Amino acid sequence: MKLYWTKEASIRLQEIEEFISRDNPQIAIEFTDKLISISETIPDNPEKGRIVPELAIKQIREILYKGYRIVYHRREASIEILTVFEGHQLLKKEEILKNMIK
Question: Residue ranges of the domains in the chain?
């Protein structure tokens, strides 16, 4: 099963790294590397994440890590990372659904 990152998810990951690097550049790199490595485990077990509560769509799931949410779309032959964001922020449902790879 292939893993893809949407443009939205890539941008959000970069923003997270830039924000954390203001205080500690090394920790920022380690943290975003961990988010990426967690994402890379999803194709091995696509059902491991919970269904995103705000959407309640079985194929759109999320994994939580240290207050961050990795939201992904489970397809038949691939996984798309839709976004990554800090959990206290609201999920932008319209943005997620609009930016899903067709």
Answer: 2-98
CATH class of 2-98: alpha beta
Q: Is the pLDDT of residue 46 over 90?
A: yes
- The strand pair at 60-65 and 78-86 is best described as unpaired
Strand order in the sheet with 60-65: 2-5, 78-86, 68-74, 60-65, 50-51
| pTM greater than the 0.85 cutoff | yes
pLDDT of residue 73: 95
Q: Is the pLDDT reported for residue 87 higher than 60? A: yes
Which secondary-structure segment (H or E) carries 96? helix 93-98
* CA 44 – CA 83 distance, rounded (Å): 19
